[in-house]
Write a structure and sequence with these properties.
Strand content: 15-25%
CATH topology: Rossmann fold
CATH superfamily: Dehydroquinase, class II
Radius of gyration: 14 Å
Structural class: alpha/beta
Number of strands: 5
Order of helices and strands: EHHEHEHEEH
CATH class: Alpha Beta
Helix content: 25-40%
Distance between the termini: 13 Å
């Protein structure tokens, strides 16, 4: 069975209470449960991990090689700052979809730059929690 890693970065553990006007009221637990259930519906095993620590995210990307067919990454603020995450993605040679709940291009100027985008197969942003299902479908389609 094909398996995907859904990897969430800093502050996403606060979803549901953190700036609901920007990120909505759905919790990370709700998103993870939906990803696993949706994956099961379409024949894909989905594992989820969240960390506020850059190094732990890098380690998870490294560990994904040989275990997962691809990664869906919401790197949060590390999107705009982390060359380490970019290098990790380049190193594992797995397809990665960059995901954001909000439309980062319609927000503050500093959020318009992504260090992840150049090494991802695509970017999904602005669709809230529904973006995770879109990402699962996009990654699945890419692998077919």
């Amino acid at each position: 069975m094909t398996s995907f890693l859904v990897l969430n970065g800093p502050n996403l553990n606060l979803l549901g209470t953190r700036q609901p006007e920007v990120y909505g009221t759905t919790t990370l637990s709700d998103i993870e449960e939906d990803c696993v259930a949706y994956g099961t519906e379409i024949g894909i095993s989905v594992s989820c991990l969240q960390s506020n620590h850059e190094g732990e995210l890098v380690d998870a990307i490294h560990a994904a090689k040989g275990t997962f067919a691809g990664i869906i990454l919401n790197a949060g603020a590390y999107t705009h700052t982390s060359i380490a995450l970019r290098d990790a993605i380049s190193s594992v040679e797995l397809p990665v979809i960059e995901l954001h709940l909000s439309n980062i291009h319609a927000r503050e100027e500093f959020r318009h730059t992504s260090f992840i985008a150049a090494v991802a197969i695509g970017q999904i942003c602005g669709f809230g929690a529904a973006g995770y299902r879109l990402a699962i479908d996009a990654l699945s389609g890419h692998l077919k």
